[in-house]
Amino acid sequence: MNILILFIEFFKVGIFSYGGGLAMLPLLQETALDKGWVTVTEFADLIAISQSTPGPIAINMATYIGFSSGGVFGALVASIAVILPGFILAIIVATFLQRFNEHPLVKSAFIALKAAVLGLVCTAIVQVALVSLYTVEQGNLLRFYRDIDFRAIAVFLIMILGILKFKKHPIVYIVIAGVAGAIIW
């Protein structure tokens, strides 16, 4: 693995992803799959692990992929590369935003950016759902009922109901899902 390629690819993920962690998922997925760093199934597992561990999801994913591709130095390079664009942009934006915060064009731009981030997050949700709820790696909508894993849907629905009804800390639901998965599968 060329460390420079690792840096460039994760820097691109950082610079072209507005909205942070979940908004970065589509670009992270495209990059990681295109470069052959992970498979579709590994990417879905990586999302679950990255969400379950402390820290931002994009940094957790970059660290894992960097480590698996280039060892400790690769993990460091990928992690720095994914946060560097946001760090630079935050400094630039903070400098100018105070002056132009109330400008109608700035307000309009942020409305559009929030909508774009929502679209990116929804795309990531659909992609992860397809990998998580299907028993085959490449889901085929024509074979939907045969390929779908109804146990996964049951766990998914129980988690949603539990979260809405009991409002416990997310780690409680992660542990419950892990135990349920170990028992059911």
UniProtKB/TrEMBL annotation:
This is Chromate transporter. InterPro entries: CHR_Transporter (IPR052518), Chromate_transpt (IPR003370). GO terms for cellular component: plasma membrane. Belongs to the chromate ion transporter (CHR) (TC 2.A.51) family. Its main location: membrane. Keywords: Cell membrane, Membrane, Transmembrane, Transmembrane helix. It is found in: Cell membrane. It is a multi-pass membrane protein. The chain crosses the membrane at residues 7-28, 72-97, 109-136, 148-166. One of its GO terms (molecular function) is chromate transmembrane transporter activity.
